[in-house]
Structures are given as structure tokens and as C-alpha cells.
Design goal:
Elements (H helix, E strand, L loop, with lengths): L7 E6 L7 H11 L3 E6 L9 H8 L21 H7 L2 E7 L1 H9 L5 H8 L4 E5 L3 H5 L1 H12 L3 E2 L3 E4 L5 E5 L3 H14 L7 E6 L4 E2 L5 E2 L6 H12 L3 E6 L12 E4 L3 H12 L4 E4 L6 E3 L20 E3 L3 H6 L7 E8 L3 H11 L4 E6 L11 E8 L4 E8 H15 L6
Parallel strand pairs: 1-2, 1-3, 3-4, 4-5, 8-11, 8-13, 11-12, 13-16, 16-17
Antiparallel strand pairs: 6-7, 9-10, 14-15, 17-18, 18-19
Helix pairs in contact: 1-2, 1-8, 3-5, 4-7, 9-13
The structure holds cytidine-5'-monophosphate.
């Protein structure tokens, strides 16, 4: 889901030929789930009609303090209210005239009055001919606005309406929407942090068609990955073979099959990771040899013996890496004496916390959509999370890790 989802965006449109692109910008913002309120200057109406923008934004477009057709009723377009309503304000296109008014505080139209009242982050996407753009008055105004905290979405280089080629084209609507999303992402608590998670089962091949595996769905790991993504982290998910439908949007996923492959993928990212969570149900054993061809049913004897050897313990291997810098969390699935085993695992695997699921309880563990867990930290703290969906639990666990460990930028 886009970070613009449910955000209230005030779009100011000022007089530049690029105003025709503001129709695309409205569509782009709406497509990403934003609510869009357009305020337009009189000059912009020569380039794009308020009807186009109001149809696309599904809201009336405001232009004057008192609209002509409302004069009889004395309806006032309240610039202060609009300025306070918005989560973000973007003026696109921002003409040199509007930039100049913003810099000096002139507010002889609704757009600049709304701008002066806005309490939210404000962005401008300048658009003008190359010589106007290069003029000292414009560059000084932009510098001043930037110093005051206004985000400038730089113009593109290219062919301009005048036929000249240079800098001054308004950034493309998708780039403007991306810029706003980037701003929102940077303000999230785990922005700039790297989170590494493994999930799902591993398959250890006996022969080309058979394997040792388990029913792990990867849902708990995917829920944690989604929670970390929504908090702004850069998330890498190393995923074993699962058929479950998982929300993996915005997550860098590497699919692996065996414990060896999973270990290799985890080691690749581990030293860069600020938080590593091992949720995978890694097979503890694998066939000592993998038959080159399908093992045939033998006519002699009723049994077949397959010799097994241990797989690498990924969590333990990570826990003993000399260049370890981030926090390391493991999961434990027990059928009895869960607390005792979980605490022993915490120490043996050198983890910062262990999340325990006790198998056997209805709705807890492997394949389902719900889980109930306890968390034991290396500092000796214990936390309990009652039965809830894995999605909700993923969010709660991430919140706990942010509180307990030095992770958040907030
Ligand atoms: O030792 P046990 O399998 O009970 O420990 C569970 C934890 O260890 C989980 O975090 C699991 O992902 C991890 N593990 C591992 N490699 C294995 C077995 C388990 O990383 N071979």
C-alpha cells in the first residue's frame, strides 16, 4: 500500500503551461489512495479547467476567497481551515510569480493565503522557461524557501513550451508523487534501517523428487516483514518453499530451498542488518547423501533406511559471527516445557530475544493465520502476547523490538 494512502494532500496549481500535467498529478495521487483538495490560481485556469480537476479529485476546486456563484450566499473559502486540513501541501506547477509571493509572504490570492496558513510540510514543483528559472530572482526565492523548510522538487531538463531546451520542465506527476512518498518514508521510525528475516520451511532433498520438509507457511515471518516495511525499514526476506499467499509488496524477497541455501543468503545480508529475525522452520536434519536418480521401490525388504545428518543451525551461526552489529531474534516452537527450552536456546544461540510458540494450543504455531507467543529477552525480561492474527502480532512484536532495542530513529 502506498504511504500516500489516506493522506490529505492540498494541491496548489499556479499559472504555467505545465498546469495541464496537474490533472495527471491528481490522478496519480488518487491512485495511491490520497484525498486531494485542489486550490488553483486565476492564471492557472487558462491552462487547465477547474472542472477537469474537480472531476478527477471528486471535490470542488477552490480559487477565490468567495467564489462568484456563491457570492449571493456569502460563502467564504476558509484558507486557514484548508491549511490545517492538509497532511501535505504541494504546489505543482509552482510558477515564478507564485514562488515570489511565497518568498515574500504576499497573499493576494487563495492559494498563497492557504500556503501561509499551512502547518504541514509544503513542497513546490517549479515550472517555467529556462531563463526565468535561471534568473537570480527565482534562484534566490527558491533558496530562501528551501531555507525555510519548503521541499523543492527539482525541475527536469528538456524541451520547453517556448521551443527552447533547458531546465524548467515540471517534474513528471509520478516523480512528484514518488517524492512525496519518499518524504513520508524518511519520517518513519525505521527509515534507513535494514531488517533481515527468514521464513517458511526448508526442503532437504532425498532424491530429485522427494524431500524432508514441514508445513511451515512463512506467514509469521511475512507478517513481521510487512510490519517492518510499514515502519519504513528496508526489508530482506529469505523465504523457504511455501505456497501461502503472502503480502510481499515492497519487500526484497530471495527464495531458497535448503538450509544450506538459506544460511548462505542470510550470511550475505547479515552484517549489514540492524535487526535479524529467524522465524524459519529450518529442517534440523537432511539426508546424508542426495540420490542422483529417483529411488526405486525395491522388491526386497519392507523398509528403506535413509541416513540423516544435521543441517547448519542458521540462528546459532549468525549469533557467533564476529562482525555481528545488529540485534538477533530467534523463534522457538515447543510442545512441552517451552519456557525452559526457549531460555536455554536464547543463551545457546547468542540471540537478543526468543519468541516462543507453544504447539498444541488451538490457533497457535505453524500454518494458521493466528498465533500466541511469549518473548524472552537476553536482559531477562518476559512479554506475553495473547492469541491474535499473525499480522497484528507482527506489528506488536516490531513495536516491542523498537522499544527494547536501540533501533528506532524516533
Ligand atoms: O533449535 P530450534 O530449532 O528449536 O530453534 C529454533 C530457532 O532456531 C528458530 O529461530 C529457527 O529459525 C532457528 N533454526 C535455525 N537453523 C536450524 C534450526 C533452527 O536457524 N537448523
Amino acid at each position: 500500500m502506498s504511504l500516500l494512502h489516506n493522506r490529505k494532500v492540498l494541491l496548489g496549481v499556479s499559472g504555467s503551461i505545465a498546469a495541464y500535467k496537474s490533472a495527471h498529478l491528481v490522478r496519480e495521487l488518487i491512485k495511491r489512495g490520497a484525498e486531494v483538495q485542489v486550490v488553483i490560481t486565476d492564471a492557472a485556469k487558462d491552462f487547465v479547467t477547474p472542472l477537469t480537476l474537480s472531476t478527477l479529485s471528486t471535490r470542488p476546486v477552490y480559487s477565490a476567497f468567495i467564489e462568484n456563484d456563491q457570492k449571493a450566499y456569502g460563502v467564504w473559502n476558509n484558507h486557514v481551515e484548508m491549511g490545517l486540513w492538509a497532511d501535505l501541501m504541494v504546489i505543482a506547477p509552482a510558477s515564478s510569480n507564485t514562488l515570489s509571493k511565497m518568498a515574500t509572504g504576499a497573499c493576494d490570492n487563495l492559494l498563497t493565503a492557504v500556503y501561509l496558513s499551512a502547518k504541514c510540510p509544503v513542497f513546490v514543483a517549479p515550472a517555467m522557461d529556462l531563463d526565468m528559472y535561471a534568473n537570480g530572482a527565482t534562484t534566490d526565492n527558491l533558496k530562501l524557501l528551501e531555507e525555510r523548510g519548503i521541499g523543492v522538487i527539482d525541475s527536469d531538463f528538456g524541451e520547453l513550451a517556448s521551443g527552447l531546451v533547458g531546465k524548467g520542465r515540471m517534474a513528471e506527476p509520478e516523480a512528484i508523487a514518488d517524492h512525496l512518498e519518499g518524504y513520508l518514508k524518511a519520517s518513519l521510525p525505521l527509515s534507513g534501517k535494514k531488517v533481515l528475516i527468514n521464513a517458511g520451511p526448508t526442503h532437504e532433498h532425498i532424491d530429485p523428487v522427494r524431500f524432508l520438509g514441514n508445513n511451515s507457511s512463512g506467514k509469521m515471518g511475512a507478517a513481521l516483514a510487512a510490519a517492518a516495511r510499514d515502519l519504513g525499514a528496508d526489508v530482506h526476506l529469505i523465504l523457504g518453499p511455501t505456497q501461502a499467499a503472502l503480502d510481499l509488496q515492497g519487500i526484497q524477497v530471495k527464495r531458497v530451498t535448503s538450509a544450506d541455501e538459506m544460511l548462505e543468503a542470510m550470511l550475505f545480508d547479515f552484517t549489514q542488518s540492524d535487526l535479524t529475525i529467524c522465524t524459519a522452520a529450518v529442517s534440523d536434519y537432511r539426508p546424508a547423501t542426495r540420490a542422483e536418480h529417483k529411488i526405486k521401490k525395491s522388491d526386497e525388504g519392507e523398509t528403506l533406511t535413509i541416513s540423516l545428518e544435521k543441517t547448519p543451525d542458521i540462528l546459532q551461526t549468525l549469533g557467533t559471527q564476529p562482525e555481528r552489529k545488529g540485534y538477533l531474534i530467534g523463534f522457538a516452537l515447543e510442545t512441552r516445557d517451552g519456557e525452559v527450552y526457549a531460555k536455554a536456546k536464547l543463551a545457546r544461540k547468542n540471540a537478543d530475544a526468543i519468541v516462543l510458540n507453544t504447539l498444541g494450543k488451538k490457533g497457535v504455531g505453524f500454518e494458521g493465520d493466528t498465533n500466541e507467543v511469549m518473548v524472552f529477552t537476553a536482559e531477562g525480561k518476559t512479554f506475553s502476547f495473547p492469541l491474535t492474527s499473525k499480522i497484528t502480532l507482527g506489528k506488536s512484536l516490531l513495536e516491542l523490538f523498537m522499544n527494547e532495542f536501540d533501533l528506532s530513529n524516533a
